[in-house]
Design goal:
416 residues; 2 domains; elongated
């Protein structure tokens, strides 16, 4: 064991000495490996960070949730858009019937929305999202109220003019979010409402699924006084019980919706059941395919880098021929010589990979400041990149190492 560790340590010192003594030559030879690792880490990290941000946005739609809508969110069958438009919108009465007739349902909420203004003491904010929801919405969505409270059953029963406001919206209007609670503000059509709560800050969102920071949530029956259902892009959000699979829930909802809309066996569905978990898997597969492009670019660079490292090792073997002969003359085995050069080649590639890693780390700090999500380097990608460097180093050094191991000690010593 001690002998193996000594060989590893010796090879590591030789790799560092090679880099120190011939910095420019070594760096130019390692440039391919550095660029290849840079491509691998930068592409995979960006894709991984973007996927994580998008998956978080998708999760905000509700876990194990199905969105009943006139629109299909994926449209795998290339259904023509004009046929979607002809479909009827989901109705509040349909949501009530689903809750009564589908035993596998845990929660179901009817949601409408619009975009309008908020006014307080002459100050006006525009471009805000209004969400009108029913009582199960808070059970499907993980809404955490930072100040005040969320809507209660009495608010829904009475169609109260109570709203819960987003953190950023409260900050813009009142300076400090906690000051918003209890104030009366005006919405669209001069509707006066009282702020009963402020939602905890959510942060930036890539897909802007709900954008709670800049939204207002109110009882559906109150928003209905401001806009008509057909103008509010209504959806029914259905969530199954914990022991019910998405396939079973979807089958139950399909049968119930066809029955509610009185569709004959020959008629096609005039609604869409959008499975959020399925959509999440679709995005995961999509990003997996995009990652292959990054690997293709990196593979080409790594092949070029392998030739550069192989060139270094051939030069190194030639420079150390006499030293190799002396080692073999005093008893060093060919396998020991082979191992030393393979490890040295691998360590050189790791040095090139670390340079690429440092470059990517600097790039992530710059990119994160300009895009709408944080770019990070997952630990798994770093480990994978180092492993790739080791493999590339071994492959690049195998031929020079074999030639060194086969040297005749007498001939090698007299080579000078």
């Amino acid at each position: 064991m001690a002998r193996h560790l000594e060989i590893i340590w010796t090879s590591f010192k030789m790799a560092l000495e090679e880099f120190r003594s011939n910095k420019l030559r070594t760096f130019l030879s390692l440039l391919g490996v550095t660029f290849g690792i840079f491509c691998i880490i930068s592409v995979l990290s960006t894709i991984s960070s973007l996927e994580a941000a998008i998956q978080n946005d998708i999760k905000s739609l509700g876990t194990s949730a199905i969105y009943i809508d006139k629109w299909e969110y994926r449209n795998d069958n290339d259904y023509p858009w004009w046929r979607f438009i002809k479909r009827p919108i989901p109705k509040y009465s349909e949501m009530k019937l689903l809750k009564e007739t589908v035993p596998t349902l845990a929660n179901a909420s009817y949601v409408t929305n619009t975009n309008s203004t908020l006014e307080f003491n002459g100050d006006l904010l525009s471009g805000l999202n209004y969400y009108g929801v029913t009582e199960d919405f808070g059970r499907i969505q993980s809404i955490e109220v930072r100040y005040g409270r969320y809507l209660q059953q009495s608010d829904f029963d009475q169609g109260a003019n109570s709203i819960v406001m987003g953190y950023s919206l409260a900050e813009k209007m009142f300076g400090r979010p906690e000051f918003a609670v209890g104030n009366i503000v005006k919405l669209k059509n001069e509707k006066r409402v009282i702020i009963i709560g402020v939602i905890k800050k959510q942060g930036q969102s890539i897909m802007q699924m709900w954008d709670y920071d800049n939204s207002i949530i109110m009882p559906y029956s109150f928003l209905k006084q401001i806009i008509k259902d057909e103008d509010g892009g209504p959806v029914i959000i259905a969530q199954g019980k914990s022991n019910i699979s998405m396939v079973e829930l979807k089958d139950e909802l399909t049968g119930a919706m066809r029955s509610i809309r009185r569709l004959s066996p020959t008629q096609e569905d005039n609604y869409a059941l959008n499975d959020i978990d399925s959509f999440s898997r679709f995005m995961h597969d999509l990003f997996g395919n995009v990652s292959l492009g990054g690997w293709a670019i990196a593979a080409l660079s790594l092949v070029v880098g392998m030739f550069g490292v192989a060139n270094i090792m051939f030069v190194t073997v030639r420079e150390r021929t006499a030293q190799i002969g002396l080692k073999k003359a005093i008893g060093a085995k060919s396998s020991t010589i082979l191992t030393e050069f393979l490890l040295e080649s691998a360590f050189l590639c790791v040095i090139g990979g670390l340079i690429g890693l440092l470059a990517v780390f600097g790039l992530t700090q710059i990119v994160s400041a300009f895009v709408g999500f944080k770019v990070f380097i997952p630990a798994g990608i770093i480990i994978m990149a180092i492993a790739v460097c080791m493999i590339v180093g071994v492959l690049a050094g195998i031929i020079p190492a074999i030639s060194a191991a086969k040297l005749n000690p007498v001939v090698a010593i007299r080579s000078k």
